[in-house]
């Protein structure tokens, strides 16, 4: 009796691999000069980068077709945030190595605003709250409470481009 060879069964496990892409960029100040040493954090995944002397950064392990939020921080500057989508396809074709590029501007926070708030009858307004939103130039709202004589000081105000006013709200 002749035995014929039995077929060999193979088991193969495949793990899907998501195409990868990159988020690259440059961080500059309000004078268009590169900022070295800015901490760039990719929120939610524990990745932290630092800009080089040209203000450049690169996050190269981004999963294509994903949205990432990056924060940018440097002492003496307003914090900024950016949301980026890494390209994942070109038409119907998956895209490996898609790149998203951005330039982020950080504004110095070394200004100060001093003032005095008065009530309609002309007397000082002790305890009045003074607010300045700097959302257009970073993530910051400054708040001060007026002293007994109605005076207030708001340190950490963004140094903004000439002609760009701050809006002060008293409540």
Helix amount, in percent?
Answer: under 10%
Estimate the strand proportion: over 45%
The SSE string, one letter per element, is EEEEEEEEEEEEEE
Described by strand count, sense and barrel closure, the largest sheet is:
4 strands, antiparallel
**Average pLDDT value?**
83
Strand order of the largest sheet: 3-2-5-6
DSSP summary, beta strand count = 14
Distance between the termini: 101 Å
Rg computed from alpha carbons, rounded to a whole number of angstroms: 27 Å
Individual helix count: 0
Q: Runs with pLDDT <50, length 5+?
A: none
Sheet/helix structural class: mainly beta
Principal-axis shape equals: elongated
List keywords for this structure.
mainly beta; 171 residues; single chain; four-stranded antiparallel beta sheet; 0% helix
Description:
- 0% of the residues lie in helices and 46% in strands.
- The chain is an all-beta fold and 171 residues long.
- The strands form 5 sheets. The chain has a 4-stranded antiparallel sheet, with no helix packed on it.
- A hairpin with a 4-residue loop joins strand 2 (39-42) and strand 3 (47-50).
- It is elongated, with a radius of gyration of 27 Å.
- The N and C termini lie far apart (101 Å).
Q: Topology, please?
A:
Layout: E1 20-29, E2 39-42, E3 47-50, E4 56-63, E5 67-73, E6 80-85, E7 89-90, E8 93-94, E9 98-106, E10 111-116, E11 129-133, E12 141-145, E13 151-157, E14 168-170
Parallel strand pairs: 1-9
Antiparallel strand pairs: 1-4, 2-3, 2-5, 5-6, 7-8, 10-13, 11-12, 11-14
